[in-house]
Amino acid sequence: MTAAGRAEPAANDASFPIRYAAIEMPADTAPAPGPPSAGPLAGSSAPAKPQSPMNRSDALAYYRALIEKEAGRQGLAPAIAEAVMAVESGYNPGAIGGVGEIGLMQILPSTARMLGFTRSNAELAMPENNIRYGVTYLAQAWRLAGGDLCTATMKYRAGHGETRFSHLSVNYCLAVRAKLFARGFPVTGSVPAATFGKPAGLGGGCGKKCLGTAGIGRVDLAGLNTRLNAIVMQVRSGR
Fold it and tell me: How confident is the model at residue 34 (pLDDT cuts 50, 70, 90)?
């Protein structure tokens, strides 16, 4: 699931139907209207105050609360879900991927529908829905992967049926691991070697020295953390 964009303050819910109407698949389906505005109390001449968007810190706290709730329901470590969200969208709820991935978790509408979502793309962009279905899909990938982080993130990025690691999937896992390591989450396991695709231009990056395959050793996350953070932006640019 490809992501793009930098962290931004969350938009209020009413803005999502307007922003996402252009990417609705059914041409005859209008976006669902936002919640009605609260008018002034009867007998009052004071106009209703407009709803102000959340600031960045409030938005992050809100996203984390949603992740905690959904990850808890799904039996997934919330830190893993947040790391994936950070790589996918940079905490930008307005992110749209190159093939139509939507929102914080960059979930495809077709994937959400497969999981039971029946509403509009505008509503899928809302953080509550986006995190619910994105974390559900990630938790399924985690179970299919037997709890292996790189395999789970590869399946989240490329689809549950994928079994091979492309260079982009390897870089994606490295980026997620870097996010987890930066937050103090215990990161275990090794990073597999890519078997297809083109290597990303890392400007003389770590290449095979980063890979924890047999005979090479495990990833030195402490030493690589700074360089791996740069991979996040490359992962967002394509699959």
Answer: very low
